[in-house]
Design brief:
Layout: E1 6-7, H1 21-26, H2 31-34, E2 41-52, E3 69-70, H3 73-77, E4 86-94, E5 99-108, E6 117-123, E7 135-145, E8 149-150, H4 153-170, H5 174-179, H6 183-186
Antiparallel strand pairs: 1-8, 2-7, 3-6, 4-5, 4-7, 5-6
The structure holds adenosine-5'-diphosphate (ADP) and magnesium ion.
Adenosine-5'-diphosphate is lined by residues 53, 55-58, 61-62, 67-70, 121-123, 125, 127, 130-132.
């Protein structure tokens, strides 16, 4: 698929274009951007992933107000191969901190000519400072949508806000709330079990 340099999958902004005025009017709208998706799918069984937070692609996620914590290549190589790219949600914990809701993008890693996957987690919480080097545990328990390309940055931001709203809502269901108490998240950190 040909995009205009705005990558929804990686929640990135750096090669983005704005879409003010005329260009916004003639941009072809993507239907899913206009109407929030009414439902999502549970990931069964949920996928548990943990590892150190590493430097990402530096493509400006934080400038969009949506920083995404990245896992290392080694951690991603252990993902189930059948895991589709797209936008997911679930629960996340940094070190021994609180457990928060998260949205996650699973995409293709530009450093490896898009032959390896990447996994970027936006934790739905305002942290006082960065936590590079910390231990991140996530339970991926729901799937929202496939990757999409966007005509402009506004559309990308709108889509991400919809993803966050979907995650916030879906994670309130009893089966999703139960996962917040999963031992994988509540046990002390075991850095040998990545
Ligand atoms: P990078 O390209 O290095 O991943 P980002 O702009 O995506 O840079 O910022 C990611 C970093 O921001 C994370 O590694 C983490 O240290 C920090 N951060 C702060 N708040 C959050 C949050 N709510 N969710 C994810 N990361 C966050
Ligand atoms: Mg990032």
């Amino acid at each position: 698929m040909v995009g205009l340099g705005v990558s929804g999958a990686l929640y990135s902004a750096s090669r983005s274009i704005g879409c003010p005025g005329l260009s916004r009017l003639i941009a072809t709208p993507t239907p899913s951007l206009i109407t929030p998706r009414p439902f999502s799918m549970a990931v069964q069984p949920p996928v548990r992933v943990q590892g150190q937070v590493v430097q990402g692609f530096g493509r400006g996620s934080k400038e969009l107000g949506i920083p995404t914590a990245n896992f290392s290549e080694e951690v991603i190589e252990r993902l189930p191969t059948a895991m589709d790219t797209g936008i997911y949600y679930g629960w996340a914990r940094i070190d021994q901190g609180d457990i928060y809701k998260m949205v996650m993008s699973v995409g293709w890693n530009p450093y490896y000519k898009n032959e390896k996957k990447s996994m970027e987690t936006h934790i739905i919480h305002d942290f006082d400072e960065d936590f590079y080097g910390s231990w991140l545990r996530v339970i991926v328990s729901g799937y929202i949508r496939p990757e999409e390309n966007y005509n402009c940055l506004d559309d990308l931001i709108h889509a991400i806000r919809n993803d966050i709203a979907t995650a916030e809502r879906e994670l309130e269901s009893p089966s999703q709330l139960l996962l917040k108490t999963d031992a994988f998240l509540t046990d002390p950190v075991d850095t040998n079990q990545s």
